[in-house]
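Thread: quick sanity check before group meeting

JM: Hey all, I'm pulling together slides for Thursday and realized we never actually wrote out the predicted structure for the chain we discussed last week. Dropping the sequence here so it's in one place. If anyone has concerns about the input, flag it before I start.
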Amino acid sequence: QVCDLHCKHCYDRSDRAPLPLASGLAVLDDLLAFCQSRHVRGQVSFSGGNPLLYPHFLELYQAAVDRGFGVAILGNATTKEHLLSLLAIRKPVFYQVSLEGLAEHNDFIRGKGYFARVLKFLELLRELDIYSMVMLTLTRGNMAQVLPLAELLRDRVDLFVFNRLAMVGEGSLLESVPVAEYRGFLERYAAAAQKNPDMGLKDNLFNLLRAEKGEPLLGGCAGFGCGAAFNFVSLLPDGEVHACRKFPSLIGNIFRQSLAEIYDAPAARKYRAGCQACRDCRLRPACGGCLAVSHGFGLDVFTQRDPYCFLVS
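JM (edit): ok, ran it. Output follows.
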């Protein structure tokens, strides 16, 4: 949970004690047993806060590698020394940092000087041949800056994507994108992405546009549309397991249950099923909207569909 930034849209600033190393190792063993029993390959994406500030980070990173997991970092810009210590163990699948728009707006959200710091960090990732990703949280305030930012990042980043703001935690203090303007934004972004290979189509709702045109559907947010409690879960340092890292979606506690028990329990199955309104939609396997966005709008994520969905039944 510890972080060296204090972003204005942070989803979770809760104060939770760090995960003891022994507990972290036990979690990795549990994850390995789960993956072996389900015949799937596992990945550990270290996030936070800033995961590099965890006092036993390198030991946990090494342990994940030793167990055969893919490893990735979702964090903040760091030093070359930190990156070299990772590379000495194994190169991460990717290193993701965040930007919230062009320099002035980004630094208003993430802190003075952070935009320039990230651009320098992207150069460092390229120098060390580490796959780089930039994530933007889409709001009303930065919507007009997304395409200019994507162009600025051309040839600087391996993949640029965005998620819509979930009005959760301190994110509730910011304004979400106007619903009526979202389809037009998606169309402009998709058109720009055809000319910029660094732009990714992560939002599940891109598949609505593609279906209209008869184009093949994409994997959306997590490869199979919404992946909440399906092909990912979020583990907090106190053992809480959530279906999604972007909103409160508690499905169990890893200190009291095995991952298999949590995954197979009714709470997780309920999140996997998604909202009832999407149940009969032909696009559901590659979509499902965004439960975190629905939650931020005060909707019942189990019955009401994503408020931005523009599919006409």
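AS: nice. The chain is about 35% helix and 10% strand. The chain has a mean pLDDT of 94.
JM: adding both to the slides.
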